[in-house]
Amino acid sequence: MSLRSRRNKTQPRVLFRHQIKAMAAAADSPPTRSQALSGMSQVYASEPAIPDLFTSQPLIVDMLETESSQLQQKTIDECLPFLSGEQHAGKCNQHGVPRLDKQRHVKFLHKQLGRLPPQMAAADPSRPWFFYWSLAALTLLGEDVSIYRERLVETVRPIQNVSGGFGGGFGQDSHLATTYATVLALMLVGGEEAYKVVDRRAMWEWLCSLKQADGGFQMVVGGEEDVRGAYCASVIISLLGIPLETSPDSAAYAAGHKDLFSGLGEWVGRCQTYEGGVAAIPGIEAHGAYAFCALGCLSILDAPHRSIPKYMNMPQLIAWLSSRQYAPEGGFSGRTNKLVDGCYSHWVGGCWPLIQAALSGPNSGKARSADQQAADTGSLFSRNGLIRYILCCCQDQTLRGGLRDKPSKYSDAYHTCYVLSGLSSAQHKWTLRAARPTGSAGGADEWEAMPYVEDEQVFNEDDRIGTTHPVYVIPQHKVEAAWEYYASKMGF
Ligand SMILES: [Zn+2]
């Protein structure tokens, strides 16, 4: 109430910045928002090649001052000197964008795979995540991560439980998140030695015990059920070629789910909220990471143009996803009224190729409808805005390297991975070349990545990074190699 009462109720709810300027000129005292006023004179001198959108305060000011609006203003003020080139003097290209400092980022990532300092002890149950984040990011930067194969295999073998799945460390309960991270890390280093670490029969039994009567998956036996579970389980089942039939002695089987994907699309659909985004579970707040988990899961259950519109309200979903990109920052926020953060470059940015495929369908050269043709061209979000945010605001300026949430934060392995994934999907255009036959759950669609060339390119061509599969978030050839290996193992 105290924040709300600061607004004079006779004043309009929102104002254009030029109106505030006129009001300020007409009166000695500012209308209300002091930050908005100080912001007016804070239009940075910009290089002509940087569009005003990225160097100026937002045109519309919400006159209701809240803790959220203060933080938002602080974030804009924090980002503008980076976006305008002021913080990168002499290091920008003609578009006002600095280089991607690959060398420093590679060095940072190799360090994350070595001995970590004592203050990281609290992150011990997340160890498999560090393997995945670092190996995935190194791969995107063009590094050969097979050099880590032996070490990874020796490290993760003891953290696999005989009852199936992987914990965060030795002796810890199996968890879908750490199992997902471990499986992806093994697929990244590749090779038979890595593939055969996974006990697929035990994994199948464990997955059957996580499958719930309502169609979803628990993260851990007896633990929480959410949309991460739906995505992690689908990725594991699909990549490892786990048989879909549920075990006759499982609770899911007794509830009528004869296969692991039964009822899952419906369960995920129930997580879409009144805002149009997707929540962790039905009935709570929509969040960018859960939107990606939902769309990724649905794109495994069936081809995206069939399954996403089947379970999601598309116009509402697109409206909510579009509202996540901010100006002048250019990056994405994860929730309504929250701040931009580099990791949503993937969680929200990674939704767009799946949405694009859902709208366009397979681009197999057949005659296209007018709607499909419209969806084929252009981009559903500002790719250059996102690339600008990533390269200007998310690169750690210190010798440490790595990528970060925003300029006031330090880099970490998590952000380095997901900021780079977001950069990759902004630099490339993914097309669904051919969809699996209708009704083949867990089947494979054919995707193709091409450099995105429809707009002016603001980054240097040398800074183009590798591609990552829009559903599995490891390179496409690593997904195909895993499928090929496990397809040769009939049953278990
Ligand atoms: Zn983040």
Automatic annotation (TrEMBL):
Keyword Membrane: no
EC number: 2.5.1.58
Cofactor note: Binds 1 zinc ion per subunit.
Top-level taxon: Eukaryota
Pfam families the UniProt entry points to: Prenyltrans
Domain Prenyltransferase alpha-alpha toroid: 100-473
Reactions accelerated catalytically: L-cysteinyl-[protein] + (2E,6E)-farnesyl diphosphate = S-(2E,6E)-farnesyl-L-cysteinyl-[protein] + diphosphate
Gene3D superfamilies (UniProt xref): 1.50.10.20
A single MF term (Gene Ontology): protein farnesyltransferase activity
InterPro entries: FTB, PGGT1B-like, Prenyltrans, Terpenoid_cyclase/PrenylTrfase
GO cellular component: protein farnesyltransferase complex
Assembly, per entry: Heterodimer of an alpha and a beta subunit.
Function recorded in the entry: Catalyzes the transfer of a farnesyl moiety from farnesyl diphosphate to a cysteine at the fourth position from the C-terminus of several proteins. The beta subunit is responsible for peptide-binding.
Family recorded in the similarity comment: Belongs to the protein prenyltransferase subunit beta family.
Name of the protein in its database record: Protein farnesyltransferase subunit beta
